[in-house]
Amino acid sequence: SEEPLLAGRRVLITAGGTIERLDPVRYITNDSSGKMGFAIAAAARRMGAEVVLVAGNTSAGSFPEGVQHVQALSAQEMYDAVLRRLADTDIVIMAAAVSDYRPKSVAPQKMKKTGENLILELERTPDILQTVGQRKGKTFVVGFAAETEHLEEYAMDKLQRKNCDLLVANDVSQEGAGFGTDTNIAQIYNKDGLLENLPMMTKPEMACRLLRIIASTLEAAGDR
Ligand code: PMT
User: Fold this and answer.
1) What global pTM score does this model have?
2) Which of 35, 113, 117, 175 could lock onto 60 through a cystine, CB 3.0 to 4.6 A?
3) What pLDDT does 223 receive?
4) Any idea where the domains of the chain sit in the sequence?
5) 145 CB within 6 A, ligand 1
6) CA 197, CA 152: separation in Å to the nearest integer?
7) Is 144 within any annotated ligand binding site?
């Protein structure tokens, strides 16, 4: 059993990949399974938190018990679901893989093929983490970064630009890390730089480590 390190804390976690529709039967998505976010939600619940899990497209199995589940398939839906709850949340952890682009127009009917090539025009989606960082007030904000190179440089840049309290950087080019796997490898940064190096471990183990770091950071800040 887990120590109630997060008793009374309201924690919102995003998980999975977003789906950006082209037409009623086609969409753009990514390889996120939701395993990392589900593991964080389950562990936060075991540590006594009140948990809201905002989930996109997932293949991680059933939702953790005792957790409030909100479905938000597109980046826009996830943005709305997170921002609506921000003021009532103590800790936000953004483990979802949100699409940076979506089709500029969504066809109301199934698109028909022609003899020509097809060019899709994509537009930017709203940046949820950035908006949360701007409006966070007292909420503790944890971002994720999926990188394939220059991990530390990109992680610190993201942490600062998006005004996160912690950033979890996973090098998704490494075997045993990132999208779809049962394990992950990550580095946790705060504004002063590298805080903790997490070698390969299962996502549930990593979820516990991350939440303990969050709890002790909050405690050190005198917020308890
Ligand atoms: O789901 P799994 O299969 O278990 O895989 C886990 C994971 C690899 C998806 C997870 O560990 C992870 O790294 N999640 C973040 C993936 C990602 O989209 O990283 P990014 O570097 O593109 O985005 C940085 C941060 O901004 C993320 O917190 C993301 O949620 C957020 N973001 C990105 C784009 C956008 N429009 N809005 C956002 O809020």
Assistant:
1) 0.97
2) 35
3) 64
4) 10-103+122-220
5) yes
6) 11
7) yes
